[in-house]
Amino acid sequence: MSDATKKGPSSLSFTRRLLLFIGSMELAITLLLTLAIASVIGTVLQQNQPYADYVIKFGPYWFDVFDKLGLYDVYSALWFVAILALLVISTSVCVIRHFPAMTKEMWQLRTNVQKKSLKAMHHNAQWQSNNTLQTVANNLQQEFKNLGFRSRQTVKQEDAILISAMRGGMNRLGYLFTHIAIVVICVGGLFDSNMPLKLAEWRGDIKIETRDLSIREIPAESRLGEGNQGFRGSVSIPEGKASEVVFLPVRDGYLLQALPFRIEVKDFRIEHYPNGQPKSFESDLVIHDDELDAPMEATIAVNHPLIYRGHAIYQASFSDGGSILSLDAWPLDSRAGTEPVSIQTKVFENRQMLWGEESMQLEMIDFRPFNINPDPTEDDSRNVRDFGPNFTFKLRTQTGEAREYENYMFPVERDGREYFLSGVRNTPSESFAYLYLPVDEDGSLNRFLQYSALLRDQQLVSSIANSMMIEALAMLPERDESLEESLQQTLETLIKMFVRGGFDEVRDFIDNNLPDAERDNLAPAYLGMLREMLARIYFSMDGIDAETVSNEQLLFLQDTVDSIGTLSRYGSPVFLHLTDFEHIQSTGLQIAKAPGKNVVYFGCALLVIGIFLLFYLPQRRFWAWLEQENGQTNIILAGSTNRNAREFDTFFNEQRTQLAAKTGNSNL
Amino acid sequence: MTTNTEIMTKPAAHTWWWYGLLLLATIGILTVYQEVLDVYEVSILIFTAISMAMVGNKWPGFRGHSIAVAILSLIALQLYGSDLGAAETNGVLKYMLASQSAIMWMSVFFIAATFTYFGGLIFRSSYTEKVGSAFTWIATTFGMTGLMVRWRETHMMGADIGYIPVSNLYEVFILFAVVTALIYLFYERRYQVRSLGGFVLLVISAAVIFQLWYAFERNAHEIQPLVPALQSYWMKIHVPANFIGYGAFAMAAMIGIAYLLVSWRANKNPDSGLVKAMPPLTMMDDLMYKSIALGFAFFTVATILGALWAAEAWGGYWSWDPKETWALIVWLNYAAWLHMRMTKGWNGVPMAWWAIVGLFVTLFAFLGVNMFLSGLHSYGSL
């Protein structure tokens, strides 16, 4: 294929040498492999993430280096596109250079071969026939025709006849198709890529917006008008709302692309399989367009986009669209009051709350009407159950620190008892730690809160400590006032510490304040005293009596104590309980316009046809040299192929026998 | 080159019954399932029948295999009726034809075939090698039957759950084993060499062992309904085309290993037993090229089908998603290999090494992307 390049390079001009280099196989193979290796980068390094994440990952120095190299959006980095462009140019030069030779190879039967060269070919045979020269020639041509070969007779010197035959010339078309296809696909892809945007950005016509703005606030230089350019963006539209713009993500920011029509979302639906896995996501859309006589209704689903005026509208994701939530804020800390307070809020709404003396910002993040999750009480993680509605929110203190919470609407059963579940975490990278608030017989938190209030009731704690102290010291022969006082104080302090910091704080106290020698003896005694106090306070409640206490009541005490013990880590003065909701969803649409799509598809078709022609249609040639010799016709048969030499061996051997027999062989 | 090959050609004429049978089967399927098949699925069905007609036309073994799969699958379907529980109560299903049992038999026969082929090679017993071929055919038939029966089982799991069982990592491993074996068997007959069997079966056995681990350790064999993104007729063509590519690349790499081994022995001692028992180096080189060409053609088709599907499911025919990008890397790698071979005339040891490296690149595109990288195509995770 490259015999044309084998001329002495020194005699060639620079441009010609450059062209030869660009179209050379060495460069093409180097480019193929370079492109392959360069492509790895973008799969190893997650592309187009928030830039802050990259800074955290690489540190400021390497962040900057990688940014300069364009590694965060490597497939549109200048150097990557340059490699791709060079490959396209190299392929084009290669095609242009070989085009004349290839078309010639495709059609020409090669009638100018010599008898000598036929005899020198790897596949050749010779025999004689008693028939006349012309009869044999016609016979052979007919046979070649039967084999699907095109052939021609040429009269050579000394009345010899050469028959040149060929089949599979289209193999050469395979070369042209595959290589042209690569160019076509890349050019088509260029139309649909973000290269035009990049150019506009370099020229300064547009500016990537990185701030979180409402659509109205987005400046004109970050807006793109309706046009012919390709794009691919997304937009989230709540049920009942509409949009005529779409956001195009660009590196760490976005651009706003106008649509020539308006998309209204009527409804969004999720269907589930019996095991809870999602089965389908669907949106009912209405397209409003002046070009339409009436608004057009359409339903889209995953794998079933709507194509409208060259725009493909896909079901891509879903989220909450601002559900309305009714909450009861139950005070966990008596300073925040003793009665639940009702609030109504919406997802994505932020509001300032004053709980006791604490002022916090409540930021609603999300609401989910059902949560089909692995059952934590079962070993097999594939056993899922519906935990019912939940909502996620953040509580931001005045210093700006925020914790994230996830509260479930309905109590969750564990070991036969029911709890309200609330997860808390400090950063999104952590998983939630759950607070289990025990539910009383009425299905409310009343009993839990009553008990929690009693622990803070100074008078009650003091009197219970007093009676416990008296019982404990009754066995002593005589009263020791200082001992009484110290014990009374210890008991009260234990409760205070427990309320403040749970068992952790009590343990810290034991570790830090007791003398080393006595710690091992005293620690169990201290914890025992605390437990006794907690139980006595519990028995002081209405309807609970130390003599007749039931097992359930004791378990309730244990759960209550456990959860109060962890409250210090919970960080919220209230438990927000969802009492009612109105679910409003938002559908995430991806909208794409790809004017180069058909060009790319055409290129793909060329590529496939070309590859199959190239591999599975070998070009085979036969030559037969016929001459008169001693009243007989002497026949020299030669053959060649450009693919599958091994099969051609067999084919040639079969055909020579056949042809010899058909032409009246007298001596094989 | 001697003609140890009565091979190929001289087909036609005798296989009209095969076309007739396929026509009948196609009409039968269309009649039974006309209610549920859409136009794409009907097209795929007809396309499948035509492909099978073409493959079976020159290859009697494939005809027998297809008929055996059809009969076994129909028996299984008959035994199942509409009761999935029959897999436990009916002896034939429980021990042979329920998809799990058939796949177990496939595993057993593939591993047995590997040992048999190598046994035949070591003891120079052509009879043993023939047994290896027979085992491979049996394994392939069981594997294909397992997939067919599993297809039915997915539909018996409940309304709307049914799907073609090439949809998760477990199922495609079976597909990989079956397809690779079929490609190998095709070339085994065509070249009349059985001594490469053990080498090719080695990669199939590796897949089988992984698949067993995946089933026993991770319960991957349990049928789970498809996520919405995978519910598409594209699945029926994109995945099989891909696995013809993967299977052919895997076979090329295994022949590459055999090539290196033989050429290493031949350098040390041209008369060594191994060199004599194995096919000539030029033949292995040729076979390596053939299977990479086959793999490349189908991998190209598969990647394009994937792009077409992506345009329908993800909103664009190309997103530089890790799976797509790795498919491109695989493609570029073999494109470079083929250019080297076809226009630069490279062959022998370096190309064998490159074919082996190619398998690792392919393996990463197939498995590594799912294990280590996240993207849109995160369907089969470990």
Notes on the protein architecture:
The complex is a heterodimer of chains A (668) and B (382). By secondary structure, chain A is an alpha+beta fold. Chain A folds into four domains: 1-107; 109-168 and 618-668, Kinase associated domain 1, KA1 (TATA-Binding Protein, 2-Layer Sandwich), CATH 3.30.310; 231-321 and 586-593, no CATH class; 322-583, no CATH class. Chain A is 40% helix and 30% strand. Chain A has 15 helices and 27 strands. In chain A, α7 (170-192) packs antiparallel against α14 and α10 packs across α11 (481-513). The model of chain A is unreliable at 1-7 (pLDDT under 50). Chain B has a domain at 232-382. In chain B, α2 (39-57) crosses α3 (60-80) and α13 packs antiparallel against α14 (349-372). The radius of gyration of chain B is 21 Å and the shape is globular. Classes of the chains: A alpha+beta (668), B mainly alpha (382). At the A-B interface, α2, β8, β11, β24 and α14 of A face α12 and α13 of B.
Tell me how many strands of chain B there are: 0
What class would the helix/strand composition of chain A place it in? alpha+beta
Number of helices of chain B: 14
Overall 3D shape of chain A? elongated
Major sheet summary line of chain A: 7 strands, antiparallel
The tally of structural domains of chain A comes to: 4
Helix segment tally of chain A: 15
Percentage of β-strand residues of chain A: 25-35%
Q: How large is the share of residues in beta strands of chain B?
A: under 5%
Unreliable residue runs of chain B: 1-11
Average pLDDT value of chain A? 88
Q: State the assembly state of the protein chains.
A: heterodimer
- Rg estimate of chain A, integer Å: 43 Å
Assign a percent range to the helix content of chain B: over 70%
Defining traits:
heterodimer, A: 668 residues, alpha+beta, TATA-Binding Protein, 4 domains, seven-stranded antiparallel sheet, six-stranded antiparallel sheet, 27 strands, elongated, B: 382 residues, mainly alpha, 14 helices, globular, disordered N terminus
